[in-house]
Amino acid sequence: MNHYQAETILQVLLDIVNEAITIVDMEGTVIYWNQTAEKLYDIPAADIVGQNITQFDWNSLKIAQILNERRPIYQAYHEPKPGKHVLVTAVPIKMGESVIGAIASEQDVTKLVRLGNELITRTSQLHNLEEKITQLAPNDDPFQSIKGHGPAISQVIGIARRVAPTNATVLISGESGVGKELFAHAIHRASKRSKEPFIAVNCGAIPAALFESELFGYQGGAFTGADQKGRPGKLELAHKGTLFLDEVGELPLDMQVKLLRVLQERLFYRVGGTKPVQVDVRIIAATNRKLEERIRQGAFREDLFYRLNVVSIEIPPLRSRLEDIPELIQLFAQDIAVNYEKPVPIFDPEVLVTFMNYSWPGNIRELRNVIERLVILMEGEVIKREHLPSTIQAPRIEVDQMTHGLAPTGSVQSKADELQRIQHAIQTTYGNKTAAAKLLGISRATLYNKMRKYGLKFR
After folding, report:
1. Digit-coded pLDDT (tens) for 289-303
2. Which of 70, 128, 259, 285 could form an SS bridge with 245, CB 3.0 to 4.6 Å?
3. Which residue intervals define the domain PAS in the entry (predicted)?
4. CA angle, corner 52, sides to 50 and 57, nearest 5?
5. The CATH number of 3-108 is which of 3.30.450.20, 3.40.50.300, 1.10.8.640, 3.80.30.20?
């Protein structure tokens, strides 16, 4: 393969990727500028290839800085111009110990930000409507408390709805914080046992020595210090209702044998008792462990697994439900703000991008905790990147000339910048003038005056 063929293949490869690709040499001169970059910045390759990247006034990637510092950046947020939002990965190109250039890949997330802002606005409106409707006619849908309308969570809710009216044993799996107990409660409330008890047992929180008496209860005088009248266990308390075994993978092996017997025979004996106790109970189990792996380790019985796994429901982690994050952000923010008597915050686009690019190892529980912290500690009404916990803050491209708020009026350029920022704020908030004014740091009346000044329509 000759040099011309290799260069042609490279050019085709650069043009078929979805990211905007920029390659510069060690002097900062643009070598490659693919078709996606042309569309993103509306700059033809012919106008930029061969030119120095620093000559352009659209808040460049500062590749020259990357060349100087020889320090790569990964998935950094950048707003190269108002209304454009990207995630940038840029690395120096090395030959041995020498830096011979740099390459940057920009993922355009503008549509993601706009969709997120629109979802936040729509969610707020729907939430207010739901509250009004509930006041007039209370909604008794047991699954209403499970938030999200994306395909991943909708499919899981559909399975739960279908299994709820039956007496089938259900095994709910998913990472910690995804809402397994919320699903268990919803299934119980949607079942024929809804008027009977829902008893929850955390199998990982009860010492092994006490587990048998907790689950089966004990006969009077069964052991030293025992109540002489005896005490019913969780199984008896759940009679005719639902027993929820949370973190069932932590159940001791000897208790697994006894639980299996209950599932098979529907009876058990209290600790120290000789009279069998008949029980009618539905079992819903949950685990954040891979039970198949626990079986291979000899820590979980295979026969019990198949008894519990009649209907399996796997709740997706939050990182697989990106389309639900804007809705969850707004719902949590509204509920928490009302609870603490604080204003409902506005989320800067960079915060939205950061949230949707974060892996959320603690899932929905972690997201709610972060929103609660932000609402409690916020001083203004706009939550920005610097307000986020350090563990969540994504890297960003710092641009010296980027300013916040409106520029003072005077020169033609400052007026053009002011108009651009007003248009950007209105676009970002989807026409919500109050939110746009807060985003700009001015009053609503001032915003209206400036809109009249520039001939902007009040829609």
Report:
1. 899 999 999 999 999
2. 285
3. 6-52
4. 125
5. 3.30.450.20
Per DSSP, 82 falls in state T
**Residue range 345-365: average pLDDT?**
88
Picking from 23, 114, 104, 57, the residue whose alpha carbon sits closest to that of residue 399 is: 57
Secondary structure (3-state) at 163: helix
What would the pLDDT profile of 150-209 be if each residue is shown by its tens digit? 899 999 999 999 999 999 999 999 999 999 999 999 999 999 999 999 999 998 888 877
Of 297, 165, 181, 237, give the one whose Cα is nearest residue 305: 297
Helix axes 110-136, 325-339, angle to 10 degrees: 50
CA–CA distance, 78 with 89 (Å, rounded to integer) = 10
Distances (CA, A) of 361 to 35, 175, 358: 36, 8, 9
Spatial distance between the Cα atoms of 41 and 188, rounded to a whole number of angstroms: 54
Tokens of 106: 């920009």
CB 419 within 8 A of CB 454: yes
- Please give the span between the terminal C-alpha atoms of the chain, in angstroms, as a whole number: 60
